Amino acid sequence: MNTHYPSVLLENAVNEFAKLPGIGKKTALRLVLHLLRHDNESVSHFAHTLARLKEEIQYCNCCYNISDTEICGICADLSRDATTVCVVENVKEVMAIEKTIQFKGLYHVLGGIISPIDGIGPSDLEITSLVERVKNGEVKEVIMALSATMEGDTTNFYIFRKLQPYDVKVSIIARGVSIGDEIEYADEITLGRSILNRTPFDESYKLVK
Prior knowledge:
Largest sheet: 5 strands, mixed
Distance between the termini: 58 Å
Helix content: 40-55%
Number of helices: 9
Radius of gyration: 21 Å
CATH class of the largest domain: Alpha Beta
Strand content: 5-15%
Number of domains: 2
CATH architecture of the largest domain: 3-Layer(aba) Sandwich
Order of helices and strands: HHHEEHEHEHEHEHEH
Shape: elongated
Structural class: alpha/beta
Strand order of the largest sheet: 4-3-5-6-7
C-alpha cells in the first residue's frame, strides 16, 4: 500500500477518479473524500446512476447522438427542418449548438474527426451513414460545423468530396470561431452567428487555399 494513503480502498478509488480527463490525484482525493461524507444511500444512488448510464444509454439510429431511445428527441421532432443536417464531431457540439437556439435542422454526429496521427481514418467515423442520408434525397443542405483545426479541415474536405456526386448544398460555418478553436468552447452568440452566416464550402475552400 502507498504510505500516503491510510487505506487501499481509498487509494483504489482515487486512482479510478484520476483516470477521468482533467482530474488529477488531488482533485480525485477531494472527490472521494466528499463521497465518503455522504450517507450510503446517496453514494449507492450515485454508483447506480453511473452504471445505468453505461448499460442503458443508446445512440440514435439516425444521427448517432446520445439518446434514451432508438431515435433521439431531435430527430423525432417533426417541427425540425429535416432537409438541413449539421455535421459535428461529438455530442458535445450538438449540445453547444442547441444552446444557441439558432439551428432548427437535424444533426449528424461523426464520432470524431480524421486524424492519421491518432490512427483515426474515415472508416472509423460515421461518414458512410451520412452519405446514405444524403443519397436518400431528403437532405438539401449539409452544414459542416467541425473545429477550425487541420484535422477538422481535412475531414470537411473529405466529406465534401464524398458528397459531390449528389444534389446537395455543402456549406461551412463562418469562421467567427478562430482557427484552432473547439466548437464546444465558443460562446453562444459567436457560434450562433457562425451558423447563420455559413458560406458554401467550395468558396470557403478557395479562400483557405
